[in-house]
Amino acid sequence: GQNIDQPTEMTATEGAIVQINCTYQTSGFNGLFWYQQHAGEAPTFLSYNVLDGLEEKGRFSSFLSRSKGYSYLLLKELQMKDSASYLCAVEDSNYQLIWGAGTKLIIKP
Amino acid sequence: NAGVTQTPKFQVLKTGQSMTLQCAQDMNHEYMSWYRQDPGMGLRLIHYSVGAGITDQGEVPNGYNVSRSTTEDFPLRLLSAAPSQTSVYFCASSYPPSTSGGRNTGELFFGEGSRLTVL
């Protein structure tokens, strides 16, 4: 079967750095997405990785290792507004998205 | 730029009732989809469309119908509501690269969501 695993909840301190991991087992791979979802709102796109390595976009970076079936989202200089759920999604060989259940990130002052 | 507009935001139904969730996008996106989101689970694809006149089933299509008569609109119909359909529903669209035959989802743009309760 196809599976995306990510931690259910994480807590971090304002100003710090946090890494949210995502491991996947899917039928093929065409890319990996990270989305941010604030409570009661729709998901919004953060990043897309299709090749191995690190993609940096401001305070957010996303890393991919296809051989290990592993990705992480790195958030630097955490702000209170970063409190949200972070969704990992993998596009399989049929170009369908397989979604993880999301990681709820709690930022404390 | 309105993006993806989804209505209604909230709806309460009784078991057996039918209803339609409306979705419209003004970005000329070829790909549109409907997801449901339940606590502790990832988003699950209900139906999707890669262009006007073309629809296909996703992971959890039972109890739902869709149609795509125009590029802009992609309504989701609940035929006979059941308590198991209590969920938050999201419509999403994207402009997939032509190299994927229209199937690559690309970056998804989501509507604000519709919270449906079936009693």
Report on this structure:
The complex is a heterodimer of chains A (109) and B (119). Chain A is an all-beta fold and 109 residues long. Chain A has strands at 3-5, 9-13, 18-25, 31-37, 44-49, 53-57, 60-65, 70-75, 84-91, 97-99, 103-108. Chain A is globular, with a radius of gyration of 13 Å. The mean pLDDT of chain A is 95. Chain B has 119 residues and is mainly β. Chain B has no helices and eleven strands. In chain B, a hairpin with a 2-residue loop joins β5 (44-51) and β6 (54-57). Chain B starts with a strand and ends with a strand. The chains are: A mainly beta (109), B mainly beta (119). Chains A and B meet through β5, β9 and β10 of A and β10 of B.
- Given helix and strand content, the structural type of chain A is mainly beta
- Into which percentage range does the β-strand content of chain A fall? over 45%
Number of helices of chain A: 0
* Arithmetic mean pLDDT of chain B: 91
Helix content of chain B: under 10%
Keywords:
heterodimer, A: 109 residues, mainly beta, six-stranded mixed sheet, five-stranded antiparallel sheet, 0% helix, globular, B: 119 residues, four-stranded antiparallel sheet, 11 strands
Question: How do the strands and helices of this protein lay out in sequence?
Answer:
The complex is a heterodimer of chains A (109) and B (119).
Chain A lengths: L2 E3 L3 E5 L4 E8 L5 E7 L6 E6 L3 E5 L2 E6 L4 E6 L8 E8 L5 E3 L3 E6 L1
Chain B lengths: L3 E4 L2 E4 L5 E7 L5 E7 L6 E8 L2 E4 L6 E3 L9 E3 L8 E8 L14 E2 L3 E5 L1
Parallel strand pairs in B: 2-11
Antiparallel strand pairs in B: 1-3, 3-8, 4-5, 4-9, 5-6, 7-8, 9-10, 9-11
